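Minutes, project check-in
Item: structure for the 265-residue chain
Input as provided by the requester:
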Amino acid sequence: MIQGFYRLLIELTNGRWTSGVLKKFARSRVSRFVVPSFAKVYHLNQEEMEKGLSEYPTLHDLFVRTLKKNAREIDKGHDTVVSPVDAVMEDVGSIKETSEIVVKGKTYSIEEMLSNRELLAKYQNGTYMVLYLSPSHYHRIHSPVNGNVTKQWSLGKKSYPVNKLGLKYGRRTLAKNYRMITEVKTEFGHVAVVKVGAMFVNSIETTHKGSELVKGEEMAYFSFGSTVVLLFERKTFKLDSTIKIPKEIKVGEKIGTLSKSAIRR
């Protein structure tokens, strides 16, 4: 019963009133009483948390928790791309010349997602990857590559669920939800990290300072569950051959490699 209550509130509701109530509750001191049951329902790994459950004053503080030092091993390969989040890798595929991608049988527009025609061309015929974070996941976002931020911008207002049901039945959720996009220039080409809000999670908080990013370094965090979409320039990214979709993945794990030789001139 408790598990059903959490899933109903957190994963499926999106009304303005219910979202507002839940957001206010999660940040209130009263919410500390549900921290233990939430941790139990979602099987949170308490051994890797920086703090004990009793040290989280609100449910929101638990959602945005940090981990103990070295809880995640970051792949150090020079040309590797690592997962920026703890998540389920739901889909990987090619971006069509028309800028379209197909996720869970639904077509999305990268042009609409980026809302920037100047940047769009480099990603046409490139690769996309969808990483879904459930309420049980660690919600901090880390850089998947070494590089420099060339542009960062936010789009959209309202957010709809981005879980499996949301992707299947929602209306252009990946391209229309509130989202914060960070484009990173690496020596192999550009990578766009699209942080997509879910439900009322329109406060994607940036924690990184400056323009230089180090692979595995924290960039931002979500509250509750959400999704990250990675976009790679054409012919620069190769998925790790051991990955089979869907796949549970953690921050720092190798997800593929980049190739300098294939960069468009």
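Outcome recorded: The radius of gyration is 18 Å.
No further action items on this chain.
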